[in-house]
Amino acid sequence: MPSMRVISADEHRDYLATLPTASFLQTPGWAKVKAEWRAEHLAWVDDSGQTVGAALVLYRKLPKLNRYLAYLPEGPVIDWSTDRLGDWLGPLARHVKGQGAFAVRIGPPVVTRRWSAAQIKDGIADPDVRRLGQVPPLDRSAAGARVVAQLHELGWRHQAAEGGFAAGQPQFVYQIPLTWTDGTGTHGHTEESLLKTMNQLWRRNIKKAAKEGVEVSVGTKDDLKAFHDLYVHTAERDHFTPRPLHYFEVMYDALNPEGSAEPVSELKVWLARHQGDLVAATLAVRVGQHSWYSYGASSTEKRDVRGSNAVQWAMIRDALAAGATVYDLRGITDTLDADDSHVGLIQFKVGTGGEAVEYAGEWDLPINRVLYKAFQIYLARR
Predict the structure, then answer these.
(1) How many whole angstroms separate alpha carbon 198 and alpha carbon 221?
(2) Under a CB-based contact definition with an 8 Å cutoff, are residues 337 and 126 in contact?
């Protein structure tokens, strides 16, 4: 049974560097992005003293009380294939209770179901289908089902997704696998084979952007201002609240740690320009073999030059060249209702080929049931 100890940010980083990947939300750098939360780095250690798991825990203080929600976004990084999850999560709950936590929230990075692009397209076209869950999945993960069953047995409570978005991180995402498997083994995609998985509209838009002279480049921290100006414009058009420029400056520094001998994360600013005008801009994060499209912005003018398609294709090619095995377009809702305003987002992502992926979602373990109940009421009133 693994034991738990507090480790330094450097020890945490060094352990993650030995793994194929982990969520960027579980890297030491993410603690700097979420500076309003108190951060702690934890490790699970086996009998020989070897680190076998790690976690970034973010503690959010309750108003007026010296009690905290302990949050592990898309974590912890442990052996989720085990049949003895309690041996891992029990020490975690006891530790955070000692730190004043009234509850702990985790986000197991475990896939439960997958759907192909063709299945989603058919679902949207079918008037009787309203939700992704109504479509029989291409794949049901036995490992994912085992995790969900164990969490229920251990008293954890699933946080129901609202419109497909979980309480914190998205439960449903859209991903492009950059490898494929057959009877002879696992093979890497080429740019040509990836283009073939995209729909005709996406391929046409990528070609059109090139023909129109859209130029895509990787920027520096100085280009975050240009990205942010376009992001604020996008927020006004699409009716969401934008984050301040300072947030992205902190994120850039935190996920591109200077002087780190072995950085586990990398954030890039991507810029698509047409005749000198910025028409699209994005942020992409990579940790080992997993690459994420994190934030995006596009101009309302010149939409016909297809800057958004051009910049996405550049990021996909970069992920492929870096040895990533998956390109992650992040959250989607689970709606397949053609009349729902959210369906446009999934249609844009479905055009890339790829697949919709459901994760186990976020789970809470109440430690102080009275405070947890009050917290739930507070959230419901927000």
Answers:
(1) 32
(2) no
Q: Does the global pTM surpass 0.70? A: yes
**For the segment 344-363, what is each residue's pLDDT rounded down to a tens digit?**
889 999 999 999 999 999 99
Residue 85 token pair: 């999850």
Residues with Cβ < 8 Å from 148, sequence gap 6 or more?
112, 158, 360
Examine domains 3-107+362-381 and 112-139+160-359 and report if their fold is the same: yes
Cβ–Cβ < 8 Å for 125, 347: no
Specify the fold of 112-139+160-359: Aminopeptidase (3.40.630)
Domain positions in the chain = 3-107+362-381, 112-139+160-359
What CA–CA distance (Å, rounded) separates 2 from 48? 10
173-212 in b/e burial notation, b at 16+ Cβ within 10 A? bbbbbbeeeeeeeeeebeeeebbebbbeebbebbeebeeb
Could you tell me which residues come within 8 angstroms of residue 341 by beta carbon, excluding any fewer than 6 positions away?
none
**pLDDT tens across 264-280, in order?**
999 999 999 999 999 99
DSSP letter assigned to residue 264: S
Q: Are 336 and 343 in contact (CB under 8 A)?
A: yes
CA 371 to chain centre: 29
Pairing mode, strands 3-6 and 157-158: unpaired
Which of the listed CATH numbers 3.40.630.30, 3.40.390.30, 3.40.50.720, 1.10.10.60 matches domain 3-107+362-381?
Answer: 3.40.630.30
How far apart CA 267 and CA 29 sit, in angstroms, is: 11
Reported for 142-148, long-range contacts at CB under 8 A and 24+ positions apart, including other chains, are 143/80, 143/81, 143/110, 144/110, 144/111, 144/112, 144/113, 144/360, 145/112, 146/83, 147/80, 147/85, 147/108, 147/110, 147/360, 148/112, 148/360
pLDDT given for residue 163 in this prediction: 46
Q: Which amino acid is at 134?
A: Q
